[in-house]
Design brief:
The protein is an all-alpha fold. It has 9 helices and no strands. The protein has helices at 2-35, 43-71, 79-130, 137-200, 208-218, 222-229, 232-273, 276-286, 290-313.
């Protein structure tokens, strides 16, 4: 009688880890998935990405404007530079696309991690607990669940981490970006003013570059310093081209390269800190095999009962 009671108690304890896993799966799919699938949760990351996107849009317009200005310089001496700047402006479009993708992957991966990855991992672990010790899938399912969970965790952490790292790098170049955009806007204003003057005076032989030199000679600003410090039109064009090449490289690194490198670094860190053997030990410590545990519990509870029965018989 006492042995049957002990066996029933052991069976109930066997179901506790399974119930806990199912509860985690339900909470993850119904509660946490809603929290991490909304943009409000990622407000800080959204602000960083939007600021970077606005900077890239400004650089795109600026590079296109500077390319148009350089192409209008006399004797076509800067035409190759203008063509390269036009190609860079197209490259900025790729960076904008990467930023938009990164922004929407935040909520998408958050939803997938808590709606699919965690529930499925819990279900695989729960299924392994119900299998007999002789079933070949009893050891395969926990390993698959752990690998699947770690894969999802790496993706879930990678984008917020990459946004943070990119923001640290971008902060170093914010002043350079602002200066470059200001220079391009000043140059665009000069070209617009020159075109307006040409419309009024068809007899004027003044070129856009002459207007830039004349206008910048009367205005004490950053653009004036850039033009006067360069050796004429060619030097000024080379300086602008160098600025855009540097900023384009920075944007590619922070918007394309880092989001690829960060998941790899996180994966290698997990692999170094928690190898397969350590993960299995952690899993066994957190959720011990109910079959083995139950047999030990039943044995420990049945043996006193058997001793008491033998004592009564004697």
């Amino acid at each position: 009688m006492n042995a049957s009671i002990a066996l029933k108690a052991a069976q109930k304890r066997k179901m506790l880890p399974i119930i806990a896993l199912l509860l985690i799966a339900v909470l993850s799919a119904t509660v946490f998935s809603r929290v991490f699938a909304t943009g409000e949760t990622y407000r800080g990351q959204y602000e960083v990405i939007d600021e970077k996107r606005n900077n890239v849009i400004g650089l795109t317009a600026s590079s296109a404007g500077i390319a148009a200005l350089i192409s209008s310089l006399p004797d076509d001496m800067c035409t190759p530079i203008a063509e390269e700047l036009a190609e860079i402006s197209k490259g900025f479009g790729v960076v904008i696309g990467a930023l938009i993708l990164e922004k929407y992957l935040l909520t998408t991966i958050g939803w997938a991690f808590f709606t699919i990855v965690i529930p499925l991992s819990c279900l695989l672990l729960a299924a392994s607990k119900l299998m007999s010790p002789t079933n070949e899938y009893k050891q395969i399912l926990p390993q698959a669940a752990l690998k699947f969970f770690l894969f999802g965790l790496v993706l879930f952490l990678s984008i917020p981490a990459s946004v943070h790292v990119s923001n640290l790098i971008d902060a170093t170049y914010n002043e350079t970006i602002a200066t470059t955009i200001d220079v391009a806007e000043e140059a665009a204003d000069v070209v617009e003013k020159t075109n307006a003057d040409d419309a009024k005076d068809k007899q004027s032989d003044e070129t856009p570059w002459d207007a830039i030199q004349k206008t910048f000679g009367n205005v004490g600003n950053a653009v004036n310093s850039a033009v006067e410090g360069a050796t004429g039109a060619l030097g000024w064009a080379k300086d602008r081209f160098s600025n855009f090449v540097e900023l384009f490289a920075v944007m590619v690194v922070t918007s394309v390269v880092i989001p690829i490198i960060v998941p790899v670094v996180i994966y290698l860190a997990f692999k170094a800190l928690f190898g397969q053997q350590q993960l299995v030990m952690m899993r066994n410590a957190a959720l011990p095999d109910p079959v083995v545990a139950d047999e030990q519990d039943v044995k420990s509870e049945i043996e006193p009962v058997a001793i008491e029965d033998r004592t009564d018989e004697s």
